[in-house]
Amino acid sequence: MTTDDTATAPGAGAQRSSIQVIDRTVALLHALAGAGPGGLALKDLTAAVGLRPSTGRTLLSALVTHGLARQSEPERRYLLGPTFFELNRSYVEQSDLASVAAPVLRELWLATDETVHLSVLKDARRVDLSVLVSQQLLNINPTVARFTDDNAVPPFRTAAGKILFAGQSAPRRAAMLDGAPWRAAVDRTPAELDELVEQVLAQGYATNYEEEEPGVCGVAAPVRDHTGRTVAALCVGYPSVRHSPLHAEALRTAVVESATALSALLGAAPITGEQAS
């Protein structure tokens, strides 16, 4: 343990700025972020980042003043403050989903060599915000938007649509089933749809094997925001001729990891399948 006031931010690597007080403050914030719901006592917090208690107390006092840290009662342990929620909300509001997702989509596209798309729900239909089509000769090229009633398809016939449908509240799902343009094409009972939703939420991904169209397969995972709400679905689409258990598993792993990374950019906390339900 060092107390030479050379603070090291946990998880922040070895990068430092030229302003020591900022480096020390960031080190304290990183330590608080990893402290869990119980927070940290002053002695443990300063020891974790290599600061003298007197220095740590001064910096923490300033953080508390600005709402970036707080103290629990009566233990007087330090935790992150409410200002972080406001800052994160502002970050999300200022962030265009498609722009934030672009580098994640490109990395997934390069890694899988299959078509990648980011989808949202609009008026009970699945709409693709961004699409990167596979460069392979045989590929899947999804429609950018689906707005006509004539070709309306229930979202739960696609991998991305299953994610988006399962991410809605029960009342919202019921309203969709009752009033959506595709309601006449629903070929599952309410009980079967409930089972589908439970399965998708539990496993954290969804698949489609020629359910929407012959020859089309897909695997998708949820993209969540800082509240934990599903705001989009990240999907990889591929021709059924390339389907195999090994290929499907590789794509599933890649899309789940990418969706998790994108969710983190939107402020989402790590989440398990069971927590999602």
From TrEMBL:
Residues 83-268 form the IclR-ED domain. Coiled coil: none annotated. One of its GO terms (biological process) is negative regulation of DNA-templated transcription. Keywords: DNA-binding, Transcription, Transcription regulation. It comes from the Bacteria. InterPro entries: GAF-like_dom_sf, HTH_MetabolicPath_Reg, Tscrpt_reg_IclR_C, Tscrpt_reg_IclR_N, WH-like_DNA-bd_sf, WH_DNA-bd_sf. GO terms for molecular function: DNA binding; DNA-binding transcription factor activity. It holds the Pfam family IclR_C. Residues 19-82 form the HTH iclR-type domain. This is Transcriptional regulator KdgR.
